[in-house]
Design goal:
With 456 residues, the protein is an alpha/beta fold. The chain is built from 17 helices and 15 strands. Helix content is 42%, strand content 15%.
């Protein structure tokens, strides 16, 4: 069917409420409407082709047009398009998917609870934490700690847990017993001359002081992304988790690893927790579990928590939580096809190799550029922070929206990136080739230079 290009834009502008979009930009410029994609490349309705340097939203790990996943979705839809898990009901494919995920968990886990997004999966984790402590007779132990710059979702509770102030103010968040401690952004927040290890110790001391101030009997859990994604792509400084974890253990505070972005190979290992040798009590996964082909999330629950839920089941009665689409059979089929491809095609190994090239080549191309203050990342995630002055780290004037200028310049050169303020991030599909990495770096560096010339 032929696409009416003009009508598509008009319909979008008059009908669609866009997520995470400046309404004024959309009104002035109109949307960019995509129509088809294959591999790491995507095409808009005007026929312009781009390398998708963001894998959608950190999720299309296996690239576009995967017929094995499409076929799995089609076959499951034809066989059983929907059923639920309420009242002890289930489907064969959902059970198989849960078993497959548990077999791939970074540390032993007892159960998987399915949802449709990272936001709802983290909402599930928070409710489980409160439920667990109520079952243990600890009604005061409910406070949840996250970090500034973190991202854990955009629901009412998870939006408050997310450490991004622009997600709080006009939405009257955070609500509930939510606390934040400092961001582990060494480049921006470490005192001059302090080593990364000492910065980690400082952050750990702040966490302990927060727990003691609030009262350990009131603090239930600590949420962390192995590498902060949407808050500016911030890897942990040296020794960060080594300093943090003993404090959590000392005060009986659960560790929740938000692996929504980092899971399934993004950092060059199957899980981010494996890189940092972590043993979380709860793990949140989504995005890469179906490579973005179907909305699905997974909340992993450790034996520590499951054993309490199971042992107190008679007293607790109905477990009154879930979603209509929890353990959706079509999503489970998509996930199983994705997991098979990750294993059979050595996707994690490719991500490690291409990720190393991405990090090295980006630093070689822009490490000394006058507009670039910091390049940081792990595996197939990299962030480039733009500054006005490299020596002083002085930021660019926010009103200039320089990051958005680079984003638009990159798009004009056929590359999709993402601007988080004046930090540009890239997170390509994990199937990218060495040649793709060269193109990504080349187009991005050219975009940065184009904007820098305009500033000059």
């Amino acid at each position: 069917m032929a696409i009416d290009i003009q009508r598509a834009g008009e319909i979008d502008k008059s009908s669609l409420f866009h997520a995470f979009t400046w309404v004024s930009d959309l009104k002035r410029e109109g949307p960019t409407i995509m129509s088809e994609a294959q591999g790491v490349r995507i095409r808009d309705i005007h026929g312009n082709e781009y390398i998708d340097g963001m894998a959608g939203l950190w999720c299309v790990n296996l690239g576009y047009g995967r017929q094995d996943i499409v076929q799995a979705i089609a076959e499951q839809s034809a066989r059983l398009s929907f059923f639920h898990t309420f009242n002890g009901m289930s489907t064969d494919v959902a059970a198989e998917c849960a078993q497959a995920l548990l077999a791939r968990a970074p540390v032993p886990m007892a159960r998987v609870f399915f949802g449709t997004s990272g936001s709802d999966a983290n909402e599930t984790q928070i409710k489980l934490i409160w439920y667990y402590n109520n079952l243990l007779g600890r009604p005061k132990k409910k406070k949840i700690i996250a970090r500034w710059n973190s991202y854990h979702g955009s629901g009412v509770v998870t939006g408050g847990l997310t450490g991004l102030p622009n997600m709080h103010g006009l939405f009257d968040l955070p609500l509930g017993p939510i606390l934040h401690v400092s961001s582990p952004n060494y480049y921006r927040y470490a005192p001059e001359g302090m080593s990364e290890r000492d910065f980690s110790r400082q952050l750990a001391a702040e966490l302990e002081a927060t727990i003691l101030k609030e009262g350990p009997e009131t603090v239930a859990a600590f949420f962390a992304e192995p590498v902060i994604g949407a808050g500016g792509l911030i890897p942990p400084p040296e020794g960060y988790f080594e300093e943090i974890v003993p404090i959590l253990e000392k005060y009986d505070v659960l560790l929740v690893l938000d692996e929504v972005v980092s899971g399934f190979g993004r950092l060059g290992s199957y899980w981010g927790s494996q890189i940092y040798n972590l043993k979380p009590d709860l793990i949140t996964a989504a995005k890469g579990v179906t490579s973005g082909y179907f909305p699905m999330s997974a909340s992993f629950v450790s034996e520590r928590i499951w054993s309490v839920i199971e042992s107190e089941a008679d007293r607790a009665g109905l477990f009154a939580h879930g979603y209509t689409y929890s353990a959706h059979p079509v999503g489970a089929a998509a996930a199983l096809a994705t997991l098979r491809a990750i294993d059979e095609e050595h996707i994690v190994e490719n991500a490690a190799a291409r990720g190393a090239e991405l990090q090295a080549k980006m630093r070689a191309a822009l490490g000394d550029h006058r507009l670039v203050g910091n390049i940081r990342g792990v595996g197939m995630m990299i962030g480039v922070e733009l500054v006005q002055d490299r020596a002083t780290k002085a930021p660019l004037p926010p009103a200039n929206r320089t990051g958005r200028q680079v984003l638009q310049a990159a798009a004009s050169k056929g590359l999709i990136t993402r601007a988080l303020g004046d930090t540009l991030v890239l997170s390509p599909p994990l199937v990218a080739t060495a040649a793709d990495i060269d193109e990504i770096v080349g187009r991005f560096a050219s975009a940065v230079e184009q904007v820098a010339e305009g500033i000059r």
